[in-house]
Amino acid sequence: MNKKTNFRIVIAASLALVIFASMLFFWADGCQVKLFEKKQTLETFGFAEDDRKWLEDFFQEALLGETAIYTLWGSKPVTFFDVDYPTPEMIESMKSSYSQMSDDEKKEYFLGEYNLDVLWTKWERVVAKLPMNNYMFIKHSKERPGIGSYDEIYFINKPLTIQLLREEYTLFESLLGQEFDPEKLVLSATNSNSLFWKFFQNSVTTGILLGFGKENSRLFTWQYDEVTDQATKDYVASFKSKPSDSLRNYGLKLSLKNYPIPTFKSFYKDKDPVVDGYRKERNQINKMYNGQDFVALTLEKLCSSEWTPLEKQ
Questions:
Q1: pTM summary value
Q2: Residue ranges of domains in the chain
Q3: 267-278 per-position pLDDT tens digit
Q4: Which residues neighbour 63 within 8 Å (Cβ) at sequence distance 6 or greater?
């Protein structure tokens, strides 16, 4: 057998190997595509198709309107929002006040139908049945003198909050005045007497847990709390605060094309890295939902066995 024949055999063998590898790649890639495209249904999580409308409405209000979507997918450890239970008299009073506003004043408000109370009541009945390893919904019932009852809802990303407490351990320890185990403390949040809730009695730790950034939280506290040190007053005065996001148009229906980033006071003179981070997360979240079932994918994320940072998904 001459050298030319040997060369042809090598080429043929190499070509066959390439073809085989290509076929294997496309077969494997095809399997990955099928797995990725396997869409969950509402029935997977114990819901009927009839539940879709109220689930979608609740997720739009809580995730998009209250920005809890950044706690579900992004870097916001905790989201907090109120659920009011307005009486017919309160509703009529609000309508009356609205009718007496000037046209310019009315532009700042949107008097729409409030149904978060109804949606939350439905969600509260079923949420305990969902296998949520990474998230918690915590309710604290409160009373407003002369107005009525309301609920404070805390949506907590457990892994993210535990990670934050570890990273800022010294700050949170100084507030508690004692050592603590971050994981045990976060898991104890289901108890209203847990030391975890002491963090929400301080403006700085509250802001950090709500994902507003340490610098913004500190400056906000110094601006609105009584500060006697003149040097601190001058330092805070050198910053001009601005809202992290312009208020959304409440006349538009919430959707993945129309929802805000978390709203807080930004004190950065130039670009705020926290604001920029949330804007990038919003783009990434929108890509995650692109072509997907909004309700089913949200339920799938809530019930996922492991939590993965958004940038690694």
A1: 0.79
A2: 41-312
A3: 777 788 888 899
A4: 69, 72, 298
